[in-house]
Structure prediction request, 295 residues.
Amino acid sequence: MLDSQPPDRQTIADRLAGVGYVADGALATALQLMDLLQRPLLIEGEAGVGKTEVAKALAAVHDTRLIRLQCHEGLDRADALYEWNYQRQLLAIKTREGLDADETEAHVFSERYLLERPLLAAIRQPVAPVLLIDEVDRADEEFEAFMLEVLSDFQVSIPELGTITATAIPRVVLTSNGTRELSDALRRRCLYHALDFPDVEREARILLARLPGIDTTLALQIARLIERIRKEELTKTPGVAETLDWAAALVGLGVTRLDEARETVFETLACVLKTREDRARIGREVVDRLIGKVA
Ligand SMILES: Nc1ncnc2c1ncn2[C@@H]1O[C@H](COP(=O)(O)OP(=O)(O)OP(=O)(O)O)[C@@H](O)[C@H]1O
Ligand SMILES: [Mg+2]
Prediction:
């Protein structure tokens, strides 16, 4: 805890900016509520809008551990919660041959043989960590069901050991790209924030925060051009990571104004457009037209 009074949203935004994350007011409010109500925050948005980075920035702000559960198809309890170390259990059973069977059973189902996975690890941290459940829409719906106990009660039931309750309530961030509909039960337990691509002003601030030394006018021009490019019909809309790569490339190549470096802008579009179709769609004339509007 940084202070006893919950910080206001401007303070939250300032602290995030201090670790390089530029949040808008709505996200700062969502994070404020997350702390106030001690509820998980579900962040939904397109690829590259800065969902995962929110959790990393939160961990940096609170100077605490980031525990990450990367979701994927087939993710199960053993990957997410805990599993027993079967090999060590078997060895122990062998060495205890001839001893009391009940005692051996109690022994091998004790803490020593438990392998904790991210969800259990998160609730057992002495200092509240940030738990990132990333791309939850990639996991199967059944996975959500057993995650709910952790998200609503911050506890995990292990039949052989009993119920383990959180020592400190973790800050939980879930992200989703919306590739499938999440269950109502999961949504009900979380606060919700829809994260969009940043507007021009915020994207320029992101460039200034992440690329120290970039010229302010150039940052604004790049942010405006990216906004224009995103409005073109593309198969893969560039995210903030692409903007950052592109800006770093342009700065590295000595560009100071986009309108004075049209050829370089065109040649470096590989940082931003990642499919053959999109490269074909944004030809030299389109670049000229778009630069005309941002300069
Ligand atoms: N608001 C922001 N402030 C600072 N940097 C940002 C911001 N948003 C995005 N970034 C940068 O953009 C990169 C991409 O963001 P991130 O990985 O969080 O996107 P994502 O929404 O999780 O994408 P995906 O759905 O593909 O996982 C980050 O590494 C970070 O450097
Ligand atoms: Mg992500």
